[in-house]
Amino acid sequence: METNSYVEFCTRFYEGLYHHRRNDLSVIQILSNLYALQGDQKNSFKMDRRHVRLEPLNPIAHYNLACDLSLQGKETEAVESLETAVALGYNDLQWIYDDIDLDPIRKNKKFKALLADRFLKTSPK
Prior knowledge:
Elements: H1 3-20, H2 25-37, H3 41-54, H4 59-71, H5 75-87, H6 93-98, H7 109-118
Helix pairs in contact: 1-2, 2-3, 3-4, 4-5, 5-7
């Protein structure tokens, strides 16, 4: 089976599961990733937003939502979601630097301030 066909098959399969299990976080996360693989930002965003609603204290859910918002050009909301992710414990600075989904907000002053404030402070001696 070709890769695209396999991803499309998996997407249809998980959409069927989602129809019956709308609150299943595993199904929501997998669907979000499958949609993102196919460049379907609209549906990936819907799944990530649902994940945040179901699990509002999950830092990774907020991080993924920040990526969706960044790709949509919604800078303010993206930075706010990233701030929430960091406040909830998201601390993978290297991934924040490497993640191309955040490229649209890298020049944002609040984005730069967040990184400087949370990650780039030197510890007192």
